[in-house]
TrEMBL record:
Domain of life: Bacteria
Domain Signal transduction histidine kinase subgroup 3 dimerisation and phosphoacceptor: start-end pairs: 189-254
Species of provenance: Nocardia panacis
One Gene Ontology CC term in the entry: membrane
CDD domains xrefs: HATPase_UhpB-NarQ-NarX-like
One Pfam family linked to the record: HisKA_3
Keywords (A to Z) from UniProt: ATP-binding, Kinase, Membrane, Nucleotide-binding, Phosphoprotein, Transferase, Transmembrane, Transmembrane helix, Two-component regulatory system
UniProt-listed SUPFAM superfamilies: ATPase domain of HSP90 chaperone/DNA topoisomerase II/histidine kinase (SSF55874)
GO molecular function: ATP binding; phosphorelay sensor kinase activity; protein dimerization activity
The name this protein goes by in its record: histidine kinase
Transmembrane segments: 12-30, 42-60, 110-129, 136-154
EC number: 2.7.13.3
Length: 397
């Protein structure tokens, strides 16, 4: 059954015609084909020729159903003239069925009306020409069996197909409405998040930047410790940088299409020196070994590498203040290999038990979104973050 459904409609029609020819030939050979006494002496090859012409018309039943019906009327008329046979009417009833099922809506309405006229004409002609009630009864049986049963069946199948198509369209419309509602809800949520970020977090960052600027002014006037001045300057630089990124994020969230164009893209490895300077100002000793490919990195990889490095440095500042951090970034085997190592102040088991590790999860998710991997853990008395990001394709992080 599965093999049959995989065949093309034209192939199925051709196979059906061959099987029909074999079955109808069996009826002729078994002398079970004639409807009346006339025509029993017609040679078999003539009957098979008429049958072949009818079956040839069935090859057009799907693509040109009305033309197949009209062409099939010629060999059917020949069969009626020689003496009507069951095989010929069986094949022609399939043409009637196909003409109602596969034709256009206008032809679908006209064809039954035409056959209604033909049916009445056949009954009237039979009543006029023949004597007795047997020929009329036979005509009614033939009309009902070979004309109106296929018409009724085809209309029933067509009605079910139309209903299924309507239901399919309705389901698609409901899916579209649900998707539009979902997008509207997401847009509203994004706008709410953007408003909250602007009103709360961005406000605090602005206050930090302003207050640190004021503190810098005081420190410059009083000529106090240069190291303290550097720390305050780092606080201001970080707060201004965070405020800029926060405003970029607010702008992205507030956009209706939710897209992120290149102009509003987050930072990449080009800003790594700024990140390193901020870590050094916080008391870390940072060494870098960066060997980036000459070609431009995919933006998603560039951003993910920057964010992973930023998170690793943030963790080092929190859990290993004042320690040495080594950052290594290089291309290996069509991947961007990133390693951040730092010495540990706390024992590894205490470090792994502290906090929910949301930052570590974020690093892993960023790498996985690009088809890469990121792992972090204790190693040789220190803490190491390793990430490998494929350069062959760019994914949306």
């Amino acid at each position: 059954m599965r093999v049959w459904s995989q065949l093309s409609p034209r192939t199925r029609d051709a196979i059906g015609s061959l099987l029909g020819f074999a079955a109808c030939t069996g009826l002729y050979l078994a002398n079970m084909s004639t409807m009346i006494d006339r025509g029993q002496d017609v040679p078999l090859w003539v009957r098979l020729g008429v049958l072949g012409a009818l079956l040839g018309c069935t090859l057009l039943r799907r693509t040109h159903p009305v033309a197949a019906l009209l062409l099939g009327a010629i060999p059917l008329a020949t069969d009626i003239h020689l003496g009507p046979t069951v095989p010929a009417w069986l094949v022609y009833s399939d043409l009637i069925y196909a003409s109602v099922l596969y034709s256009g809506r206008r032809a679908n309405r006209i064809i039954p009306m035409c056959w209604g006229v033909v049916s009445v004409a056949i009954i009237v002609a039979t009543a006029v020409i023949a004597t007795g009630g047997r020929p009329i009864a036979l005509a009614v049986i033939v009309i009902f069996s070979f004309i109106w049963t296929p018409i009724w069946w085809a209309n029933s199948v067509r009605t079910h197909k139309d209903i299924a198509e309507i239901e399919r369209g309705r389901a698609q419309a409901l899916t579209l409405v649900a998707e539009l509602d979902r997008r509207a809800a997401i847009t509203d949520e994004r706008r709410t998040m953007a408003r909250d970020l602007h009103d709360v977090i961005a406000g605090h960052l602005s206050a930090i930047a302003i207050q640190s600027e004021a503190a810098l002014g005081v420190l410059h006037r009083t000529a106090t410790d240069a190291e303290l001045t550097g720390v305050v300057a780092s606080i201001r630089a970080n707060s201004v940088s965070a405020l800029q990124e926060m405003r970029t994020m607010i702008g992205l969230l507030a956009r209706d299409d939710g897209g992120a164009d290149a102009a509003a893209a987050p930072r990449g490895l080009a800003q790594l020196p700024i990140l390193v300077d901020a870590a050094r100002a916080a008391g870390l000793t940072v060494r870098t070994r960066v060997e980036l490919p000459e070609r431009e990195l995919p933006s998603a990889v560039d951003q993910a590498a920057y964010r992973i490095t930023q998170e690793a440095l943030t963790n080092a500042m929190k859990h290993a203040p004042g320690q040495e951090v080594v950052i290594e970034i290089a291309e290996r085997d069509a991947e961007l290999a990133l390693t951040v190592r730092n010495r540990l102040v706390r024992p590894p088991h205490r470090l792994e038990a502290a906090g929910p590790h949301r930052g570590l999860l974020n690093m892993g998710e960023r790498a996985a979104a690009l088809g890469g991997v990121c792992a972090a853990g204790a190693e040789s008395g220190g803490w190491t973050v390793r990430a490998r990001l494929p350069l062959a394709r760019e994914s949306a992080a």
